[in-house]
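Predict the 3D structure for this chain.
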Amino acid sequence: MKKLITFFLVIAVLSLLRPLAGHAIVSSGKAEHKSEQVQSGNSQGKSILETTVNGLKQFYKFTGFRNAKTGHLIMIVVGLFFIFLAIKFDYEPLLLIPIGVGIIIGNIPFYQDGNINLQLGIYQEGSVMNYLYFGVMKGVYPPLIFLGIGAMTDFSSLISRPKLILLGAAAQVGIFLTFIGAMYLGFDMKEAGAIGIIGGADGPTAIFLSSRIAPHLIGPIAIAAYSYMALVPVIQPPIMRLMTTKKERLIRMSPPRAVSKTEKVLFPLVGLIVTTFISPSSLPLLGMLFFGNLLKESTRTKRLAETSRNSLIDIVTILLGLTVGASTQADYFLTTESMIIFGLGALSFMIATAGGVLFAQVMNLFLPEGKKLNPLIGAAGVSAVPDSARVVQNMGLREDPTNHLLMHAMAPNVAGVIGSAVAAGILLSFLW
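Done. Predicted structure below.
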């Protein structure tokens, strides 16, 4: 009996101790779990901090502040200077503003370590700018520019005095002399030919030729050509004054004769056939130039002419200016070679201006009194249309406020457009 009572007492005690032991175990488990949570929270907080820091480091790595080099800043200042010239002094704003903005776009620094292609730069395959640059590299834009030029050009002054086409031809002497000079300085023949064409003061022609024979030099050649086109009012007047006397600058020329509609319609057709037979390689440029002029002079295609000389040429000018400017990425552009090209381009342009003036003086040796040419119009033989003609007009008015030379200067000016395209075709066939 005593044993039975003892057994039940032991069972009762164990029953009472079990809940207490379970509570202790649970409490201990909760404490351990809470400790693990604290440790996990500390670890997670540390992980978030590290992620944030690493993200900020990565962000900084991709910013322009970290990747900027002195060259980028120099080129951005150049782009701002182009825009300043365009707005402040009205130097070819339709060209210099797109080019200036393009220079800034092309020189915003971005991450390029390890040859990573972020598809941002103009030289990175797949980028938007690279696709737009295709029109420059393959010579698509220049013929479209020539189409617009043809649709807005009046060849009447040249048709009335065909002999003035010789002044446009004479001004191209700068191209060939600079070609020789570039070869002397160590450029190969193709590079020298592309550099020489800067002397024609015709940006689209310079781009067209360099895209064919020296595509790696398109950037500096295009910028040089368009820069000197914009600086015509600065570069040409001192040369014109130096090479002419007061008496020569006062020469009056008889008004050009009236040109019939038939002559205006026939000129682009005859011009197309004759010039392209001489230089078939210039067909993309001259073909579009004369086609655009025929659209204008036929009077039957007014809509096409209007589109060519307004909407189309404006769109192409924007694309051309932006991409040419963006091609001046500092890593590719700021080289000794580029600086030499700029120097040769300036020399080429000055020689072309002097060549036109000098040839006008030579022509005067064979012309009777009363039919002599004002030598100033020879400077318009470079194909910076119509800026060179305006410079001649302004200089003539400065000498004599009643002596208007604009219409006379337009003849060699438009002849210079044809002449530079023919010269480009000759160089292309010679150097291909």
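The radius of gyration is 36 Å.
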